[in-house]
């Protein structure tokens, strides 16, 4: 582990960090860049909606280039990205093989109405179906769409069509998208508040958030208390979830994330989902597994569900399927649910679903996963990175919890008592990293972070799966520097 940055030369870093390039520009050039960006920000303030997430940052940054684990601003300052676009760019920025697949498709078949077939769609669906069969032993089919939320909508339609029920179960802290139907199963009320009544809003169940157990229990002695609280809801008719005479529940499906994404990369205890799946299956409730953030080796396995010892009836995925390039998402469902006689032509549709650019890119991504040993490298790197975070935790008492699965890692930022949530510290770290004024090996750098968690105090880390050990050491030192600066600014 490198902790003395002065011992590493910029030239050595460039050799050991693919995509890293230090470029010095003159003071006059830097001043011109700042002026141009200030002018652009004035235009942006007038013409762009603030309904997206850009203005979560007090001072947004313009980026112009990217490579590997790094983004570059107009002054050519490198920013080490530890979030990789909400885990969409698992194979790194400007990945040559993935980019070339997209470029080739642009020259060959750049667009095609989705009511016509192209071979890339069939080949990609076959690869996905086969991967799920290898992992879970289940036959099924793929239905493509564009974004993750749209795929969640398709899953909801499939559940309704199969069960005839519009009531769903989901977790507190769960995030499944911000379209209207996807918002109905996303626990955060602020995503629904401005849009009227949600009659089909999901019933939200506490997630096994062991660091902040909603029941005040300790994981080593709780005896799976949280699972017991779910099961007791089916004890008798007065718990409202179950009719013991008809043996029916009012719920069609339970939407889950094996590791909560926006909720703060919370990893449940072993065995939790096996018990939950048993409860649901005994009562005719489908399991829908949302892999949008945690699929494609983010957790060290192709599908996060592989860690649980059980399987889902429906799986939803997107983001990293195309390494963050042309949008493409999909659902997989068991043959008994999505066969042509059950889910026929026109059951759901989007103009850009199964688009040729996305499917060609997705094929290149799946090929990269087949050629690389990510099932070995991601757990190894995740263990190394987690140990770096634990080292930081020893130095900074404000890090209340660190945890992770594969390269889905979390640092929960707290006040000095190491427990009270500190959103102010997380926000300061986010902004200071984005300002690009950190120093490493005598060079100016920035750090790209994201904030999640129930109290918006968790730094969620989803670096490139190809992150190098040198880059992880760099991340340790930059986070150490960032924490020190942020605490000083806040007077902590």
Quick recap:
With 492 residues, the chain is an alpha/beta fold.
What would you give as the CATH superfamily of the largest domain?
A: Type I PLP-dependent aspartate aminotransferase-like (Major domain)
Q: How many helices in DSSP terms?
A: 14
Instruction: Tell me which oligomeric state these chains represent.
Output: single chain
Structural class: alpha/beta
CATH class type of the largest domain: Alpha Beta
What would the principal axes of the Cα set say about the shape? globular
Beta percentage is 15-25%
Task: Report the biggest beta sheet as strand number plus sense, adding barrel if it closes.
Answer: 7 strands, mixed
The number of E-state strands comes to 18
Whole-number mean pLDDT: 95
- Give the domain tally: 2
What is the fold's blueprint, element by element?
Blueprint: H1 10-16, H2 27-47, E1 63-67, E2 70-73, E3 78-81, H3 84-87, H4 96-108, H5 119-136, E4 140-145, H6 148-163, E5 167-171, H7 180-184, E6 203-205, H8 225-231, E7 242-243, E8 248-249, E9 251-256, H9 272-282, E10 286-290, E11 314-317, E12 329-334, H10 335-338, H11 356-371, H12 374-395, E13 399-405, E14 408-413, H13 423-435, E15 438-440, E16 443-448, E17 450-452, E18 458-461, H14 469-490
Parallel strand pairs: 3-16, 5-6, 5-9, 9-10, 10-11
Antiparallel strand pairs: 1-2, 2-3, 4-12, 7-8, 11-12, 13-14, 14-18, 15-16, 17-18
Helix pairs in contact: 4-11, 5-11, 12-14, 13-14
């Amino acid at each position: 582990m490198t902790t003395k940055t002065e011992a590493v030369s910029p030239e050595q870093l460039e050799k050991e960090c693919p995509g890293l390039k230090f470029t010095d520009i003159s003071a006059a050039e830097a001043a011109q860049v700042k002026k141009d960006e200030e002018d652009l920000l004035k235009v942006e303030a007038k013409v762009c909606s603030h309904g997206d997430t850009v203005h979560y940052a007090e001072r947004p940054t313009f980026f112009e280039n990217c490579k590997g684990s790094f983004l570059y601003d107009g002054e050519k300052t490198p920013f080490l990205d530890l979030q990789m676009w909400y885990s969409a760019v698992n194979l790194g920025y400007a990945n040559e093989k993935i980019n070339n697949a997209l470029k080739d498709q642009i020259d060959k078949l750049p667009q095609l109405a989705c009511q016509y077939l192209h071979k890339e769609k069939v080949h990609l669906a076959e690869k996905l179906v086969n991967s799920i069969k290898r992992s879970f032993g289940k036959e099924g089919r793929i239905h493509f769409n564009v974004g993750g939320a749209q795929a969640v909508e398709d899953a909801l339609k499939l559940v309704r069509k199969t069960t005839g029920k519009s009531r769903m179960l989901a977790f507190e802290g769960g995030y499944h998208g911000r379209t209207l139907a996807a918002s109905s199963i996303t626990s955060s009320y602020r995503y629904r508040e401005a849009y009227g009544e949600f009659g089909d809003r999901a019933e939200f169940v506490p997630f096994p958030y062991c660091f902040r157990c909603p029941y005040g229990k300790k994981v080593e002695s709780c005896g799976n208390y949280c699972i017991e609280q779910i099961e007791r809801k089916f004890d008798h008719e007065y718990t409202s979830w179950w009719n013991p005479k008809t043996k029916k529940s009012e719920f069609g499906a339970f939407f889950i994330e094996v590791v909560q994404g926006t909720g703060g990369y919370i990893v449940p205890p072993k065995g939790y989902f096996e018990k939950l799946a048993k409860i649901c299956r005994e009562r005719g409730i489908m399991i829908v597994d949302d892999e949008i953030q945690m699929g494609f080796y983010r957790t060290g396995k192709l599908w996060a569900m592989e860690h649980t010892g059980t399987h889902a009836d429906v799986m939803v995925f997107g983001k990293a399927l195309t390494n963050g390039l042309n949008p493409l998402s999909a659902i997989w469902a068991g043959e008994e649910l999505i066969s042509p006689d059950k889910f026929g032509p026109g059951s759901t549709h989007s103009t850009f679903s199964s688009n040729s650019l996305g499917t060609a890119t997705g094929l290149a991504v799946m090929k990269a996963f087949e050629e690389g040993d990510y099932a070995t490298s991601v757990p190894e790197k995740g263990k190394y990175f987690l140990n770096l975070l634990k080292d930081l935790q020893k130095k900074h008492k404000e890090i209340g919890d660190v945890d992770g699965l594969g390269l889905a890692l979390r640092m929960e930022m707290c006040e000095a008592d190491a427990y009270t949530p500190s959103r102010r510290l997380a926000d300061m770290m986010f902004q200071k990293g984005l300002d690009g004024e950190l120093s490493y090996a005598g060079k100016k750098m920035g750090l790209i972070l994201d904030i999640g968690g129930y109290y918006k105090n968790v730094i969620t880390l989803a670096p490139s799966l190809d992150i190098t050990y040198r880059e992880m050491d760099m991340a340790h030192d930059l986070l150490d520097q960032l924490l020190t600066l942020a605490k000083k600014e806040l007077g902590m």
